[in-house]
Amino acid sequence: MFTGIVAAVGRIESVKPLGSGDDAGVRLNVEAGGLDLADVQLGDSITIQGACMTVVAKTGHSFEVDVSRESLNRTVGLGETGEVNLEKALRAHDRLGGHIVSGHVDGLGTVTRFAPVGESHELRVLAPREIGRYLAYKGSITVNGVSLTVNSVEDREDGCEFSINLIPHTVQVTALKHLREGVRVNLEIDLIARYVERMLSAGMESSNRPLE
Length: 212
Description:
Its EC number is 2.5.1.9. This protein is an alpha+beta fold. It has helices at 69-74, 129-132, 168-173, 191-207, and strands at 8-17, 26-31, 45-48, 51-58, 62-67, 82-88, 107-117, 120-127, 140-143, 146-149, 152-156, 159-166, 184-189.
């Protein structure tokens, strides 16, 4: 589990294919930036752009992960070099500064606006309709591994557009600073919203079931 509070901005330094077939994954070498790797062991989890990955090798300042073709097909930002948001797995005694994040990308959104508004930035993202039903005013959403608060939600024919206010600190210390209109981003919905939907749908099915 994670919090969505980015611990460091690292950089994917190399992307090496793990095979020659179309279904082959890749091995990433990630320079950890300011992320302390002293307590990281092989097999530990680190999110890269919001996607949970397993450490398979490490040095003093970098680590490696293997990314399957399935993960590459369902995420963005893991198949190329560049800056990435990093967070180590949550420990039981850590502060939960963001919200409960699993590191499993639920879908991809498209940035429709990223522009300064006063001292902050407005980020607007068009999400798939199946993700839109989990979005709510002042609810939580994870964008490229960053826990953020939804400021508005607008259902559209082509999806659900939501807006977020990014304070200067968030822009400065995350890789969100590189976003531009048209860029795709990894989205993870609030875990609690997922369970609420399941409980409500199960309750409706139970209430509609005829008595025997």
